[in-house]
Automatic annotation (TrEMBL):
This is Uncharacterized protein. PANTHER family: KXDL MOTIF-CONTAINING PROTEIN 1. One of its GO terms (cellular component) is BORC complex. GO terms for biological process: lysosome localization. It comes from the Eukaryota.
Length: 59
């Protein structure tokens, strides 16, 4: 890969990064993070219930 091609790829990557920064709202990211945290908590709760059920089923 030539130097010019690398420069073009780097410039394209920089432009895509700038576009994402424009598109993504900080409040949206915060909301997304809170949703992920809530889902993680629910999955952990479900896992604990299933583990308890499996232990109960063994006995």
């Amino acid at each position: 890969m030539g130097q010019t091609e690398k420069e073009v790829i780097r410039a394209a990557s920089a432009e895509v990064s700038r576009e994402f920064k424009i598109l993504i709202n900080v409040d949206d990211l915060d909301s997304f993070k809170q949703s992920q945290h809530l889902i993680l908590g629910r999955l952990q709760d479900s896992n604990a219930v299933l583990a308890h059920f499996n232990e109960y089923s063994e006995h």
